[in-house]
Structures are given as C-alpha cells and as structure tokens.
Amino acid sequence: MKLKILEMGDTRAKILLTGARPSLANALRRTLTADLPKMAIEDVEFHLGPISDEKGKTYESITPLFDEIIAHRLGLLPIPTDIELFSYRDKCESCSGEGCPNCTILYNINKKGPCTIYSEDLQLVTQKIKGIKSKKYEDKFKIKDRSIPIMKLGKGQALLVYATAILGTGKEHAKWKVAHGVGYKYYPIIDIDNEKCDRCESCIESCPLGILKLARGKITAKNIEDCTLCKACVDACERKAIEVEGDESKILFQFETDGSWSAKAALKYALTILENKFTEFGKAVSKLK
Ligand SMILES: [Zn+2]
Question: How many CB atoms lie within 10 A of CB 75?
Fold first, then answer.
C-alpha cells in the first residue's frame, strides 16, 4: 500500500491509498474512530449552595440546565491530548487508578451570571506534570477552540464545577472519539466521449457538485476528487457520451479530528496501532500448529 497526502490541515486530512483494498481502508477508519485514545472529561463535581464573589455578593448555584446535561456537554469538549504524557487512569502506575497528574487533567469553571459560559472558561487546576513547566502545560492543555458555548447563566445564578479529564477510546463512549466524518471511496474516473457529445450541457446541469464544465467547446471535468460517483451525469446524458466509475486500485480517504489531536498525529498513531495489531495477529497465527 502506498500513501500520498493530498491535503493535511490542522484537523482535516485527505489521503490517497494506492494498492489498498477497501477492507484495509475500513480497518484504518475503524482505528481512527474507535481505537485512538483521547482525553475527555469523565467526572464533574458540582458545588451546591450559595457562591460568593470577591465583593461579598451572593449567587445561587442554580442553572437553567440539569447538572447531567452540563456534565454531558463538558464531556464532549475536545481536550488536547498528548499520548506520550498520560496513561489510562486504571493502568496508571503512579496512583493505581486513584487519579494523579500522570493520568488526569483537572479543570474548573467558576462563572457568575448573567453571562454565557464558553469552552475558554475552563481553567486548568492541574498545573504541571513531570518534564513540563507550568506555562507550557497551560499552552498545551487549554482547549484550543475557545468559543464552544456550554450554557447561559441568568442574573444571580452561578456555576462552580471541577471537571476531571481522563484517557479513553471511542469504543467506550462517543466523547472519546477523535476522528469524525471518516470516509473513503474509489478514486473517480470520468470518461467523456466528445465525439458522441452534442454539447447539450444536461450533464453539467445534473452534477450536484458542479464538477463538469464546457471549455473550448468540450465537456471537461475539474476537481475530479470531489465526484461522489452518483452518476447523475450518466443518467442525464441521452447520447451515452459520459461514463463514470471508480478506480479500484486507488482509494480516496478523508477524515477530520475534533481538535484533540492534529490530523497528522492522529493518522500516524492510528497506523501504529494497526501495525501493532497486525504484528500481534501474525505472531498468534504463527504459533498455531
Ligand atoms: Zn495516575
């Protein structure tokens, strides 16, 4: 299998797999969505009772949303993940699963209404980990997407919570899912017979993605990779001058991450997971008599 990067953004990637079967592309899809570890908020502790500000004004810890809904929304925030620094809480050697800076990140929210609470209001409580200074820790683990709305607080209302993020995988819960919109298709081949074509342009009108155009008296295709192989143009052409099919030797693969991982790091780590799985599988098979 050969892998060519067609597009690599912070959270978006498009790659071309040559010499791969759909089963392999599907294995990569499943690894990206289900096996990649990610930090997400698992426990949320709510302060109950009155909350006072610096001036002595008292607010009620009442919010328009149920605590469960707030906890769920916090769980879905994309917490930046560095797999080199953290271990799974239940496998953590430093704390045996009780929670420590090697397996958890602790955040808090302390806001008083009226206001809207955004992801940027999540403040880091944990400040350091072995090998990383406080400032760097903050840069690394503050949520990058700062304007995700969580909820609105009314007058006299306040929210004080402590939220603990731990590592998990998409297999356990959707909040630990790193990659979204993971899809693949055969590379499109659009074959236009300009001898048969009478330039009626019905194919151009039928294409929902505007891939076909008339240039210098000929129908041509641009941005072929966008073609979804819907074949609306084939159906629209009465003269059967256009053929669309997928190239079975090439697979276009694309995905996005939620921002907890960069697209490049996610792809690299997913390929490592796959490689390890296949190696283990190979070893297990070779042991069979
Ligand atoms: Zn720990």
Answer: 20
